[in-house]
Amino acid sequence: MKADILTIFPGFFQGPLDHGITRRACEMGLAKIEVHDLRQFTHDKHRTVDDRPFGGGEGMVLKPDPIFECLETLQVASREDRVGGRVKESVILLSAQGQRFTQSVAAELAGLDRVVLICGRYEGVDERVADFIADRELSIGDYVLSGGELAAAVIIEAVTRLLPGAVGNEASTQQESFTAHSQKEAGGADSTCGSGGLLDYPHYTRPAEFRGLAVPEVLLNGDHQEIRRWRRQRALEKTLRNRPDLLDGVELNKEDAKLLARIKASGVRGAENSD
Ligand code: SAH
Predict the structure, then answer these.
(1) Stretch 205-229: mean pLDDT
(2) What is the pTM assigned to this prediction?
(3) What are the residues facing 94 on neighbouring strands?
(4) Does the CB atom of residue 96 touch ligand 1 within 6 A?
């Protein structure tokens, strides 16, 4: 997958994308990330990328012309073809006003050949970018950052780890928090408790006892069925406690429903019902 980042702070990306799986994905040729400096697409002495808002008001706004010009040099397919699904390319504007970036959007983007990420700054980006060149606006959460750079790095990290081959053990990315698809096939304990849209179950490693804190006994006894049930129960408990909203979006099987009823009866309650 090719990712192009349009930014006024190209140096920002030295670091965040140079580690771990993202770096490995680039080294393996699975991902190619290019950062483009919007100031190179200005034509005045001061390389101006922002200006005052029409209509008055606070702050400055990123000008449309450097962004349009930069995009034109990238030879992405036409907006019609992108939006019509005729090419696997997407131009995305990072924006607090965008649709929420989630694990399923990450999976969708991982299926594309190319994403272009436009990072805003200041009060935001001239709306003609959203209206005429971006295919969609994405927000990484309900808070306001000072720029789209961190958001772009978050998206690239979440997406590259889903590219086939990027993570050594591919099954592991299918079992994590929020991942709707779970591996139901029989196998060891690990392959039977994908999150299925819930939060992940708790993980432990050696030592089995540390400063008097013991790992749950069930994980040490080698009974895969029991381990699977325990993990599912803990995933349900944590989801109920921290993110009860996720429970509305998952299909619980009979065993899950029973476990959940038992958890609720034992007094673990969702944050929103915790009065
Ligand atoms: N005035 C805007 C905030 C501008 S913040 C508002 O109230 O909505 C400046 C830039 O930071 C934005 O253009 C966007 O690119 C980026 N940004 C801020 N919060 C973001 C978020 N939650 N997700 C993605 N990008 C964000």
Answers:
(1) 97
(2) 0.92
(3) 138
(4) yes
Q: Which of 58, 190, 59, 233 is nearest to 50 (CA)?
A: 59
The answer to whether residues 31 and 60 touch, using CB atoms and an 8 Å cutoff, is no
Distance CA 144, CA 194 (A): 32
Query: What is the C-alpha separation between 198 and 208, in angstroms, rounded?
Result: 26
Structure tokens at 59: 């702050």
Secondary structure tally for the chain: helices H, strands E: 10, 9
219 DSSP 8-state letter: G
Whether 141 has a pLDDT exceeding 70, the answer reads: yes
Average pLDDT over residues 179-185: 57
Q: Helix H segments across the chain?
A: 20-27, 64-73, 79-83, 103-110, 127-132, 149-160, 170-174, 224-242, 244-247, 254-265
Residue among 7, 125, 145 whose CB has most ligand 1 atoms within 8 A, to mutate: 145
- Is the shortest distance between the CB of 124 and ligand 1 below 6 Å? yes
Q: Residue 46, exposed/middle/buried by CB under 10 A (0-12, 13-18, 19+)?
A: exposed
pLDDT in tens, 155-178: 999 999 999 999 988 777 878 889
